[in-house]
Amino acid sequence: MEKSLCEIRLRRGGPVALREIAGGETLLPPMEDEGFSEMISAMLDHSLYARESELDKGYFTLPDGSRAGVCGDFSRGIRAPEDVLSLCIRIARAVPGCAAALIPALMETSGALIVSPPGLGKTTLLRDAARLLSRAGQNVCLVDERGELAACAGGRPQLDVGPRTDVISGTEKALAMGLAVRSCAPDVLVTDEMGAPRDAAAAGEILRCGVRLVASCHGNTLNPDGLRRCVGALLWPGLLELGVLLGPNRGQIAEIRRYQST
Predict the structure, then answer these.
(1) Are 161 and 167 in contact (CB under 8 A)?
(2) Model's pTM, two decimal places?
(3) In what order do the strands lie in the sheet with 25-28?
């Protein structure tokens, strides 16, 4: 079960749900209310104050890179374990070689946008792409806003992202992308979950500077009109030359589309 586990859902007063990669689900008895609050506190190192910036965005990241999505009472912000009503923990797991089929195309194009609904393996694919590009001799900068890609702790990535990979974490994606170009001189920049207009604008500047980009976004189509307008705009002008659609199963590549480069 441990190796096949991909998601844990914890609801105050409700059953614990364990979801496997293949799609099966196991339900365990509910946790007592006091035990649920104690668990939340322990997961946050007994210091909610230190994690407020994450919690106010609806998540926090665990030391292994797993992300815990938070639902609860946000009326005054999550300031106590009792404010958390449920957690959705997405297990971070390296799958070495899962991006191997994409590497030749990534080496000869301006980069790729990886698209899928939540939970189908975008982050896992990005992490392996960074690792393989780095091993192929590319200087990679990993912009890891939520700490899921590299899971840095004590100044070191806890997950293998390659020997030539520099990591910027703990700051907004758009800001970090600008810092990366100015301070790291990367051949390739890798980042997760594009969506805000400022992220897409920063990505466009990255590409115009001649840095290749491998990024992801939520969606279920490679048609630019079917994506958030700011992200789809990266494909219309041919700034990003590759689109990669995942699904219908976790980690499965449904389509690779090449766009005309300007």
Answers:
(1) yes
(2) 0.88
(3) 25-28, 16-20, 5-11, 84-90, 67-72, 59-61
